Amino acid sequence: MFPILDSWQVAFYRQAGEHARERSRRHGPTGSPLLWSAVREDLIINAAAFLDLRRWLAEQDPESARWSLMGGLTELRMLDLLTWSAAQDGESA
């Protein structure tokens, strides 16, 4: 599974990707930020938060399809949704 690196995701992870590139011995073909590495680090660092989010989703209205569908998403897809929301909130601020 791969992160959906659209313009919102690229903007959100650009700085973290540049830091990952600086820490890495191997660079992308153009020396571009290592965005996938930054997403991976975010997933690892926030593993406990994703468990908390899953618990919270499980406590929501079981009759609501929205909550049950969200609870079935992978952590990567949850992260996509969260970063899209954060990036859009930042742009509208």
Give a short synopsis of this structure.
The protein is mainly alpha-helical. The protein has five helices and no strands. It has one domain (16-22, 31-92).
Describe the protein in words.
There is one protein chain. With 93 residues, this protein is mostly helical. It has one domain (16-22, 31-92). The protein is built from 5 helices and no strands. It is elongated, with a radius of gyration of 15 Å. The N and C termini lie far apart (32 Å).
What secondary-structure arrangement, pairings included, does this model have?
Elements: H1 7-23, H2 35-45, H3 47-59, H4 65-71, H5 75-92
Helix pairs in contact: 1-2, 1-5, 3-4
Number of domains: 1
Low-confidence stretches: none
How much is the average pLDDT?
80
CA(first)-CA(last) distance: 32 Å
Top keywords for this entry?
93 residues; mainly alpha; 0% strand
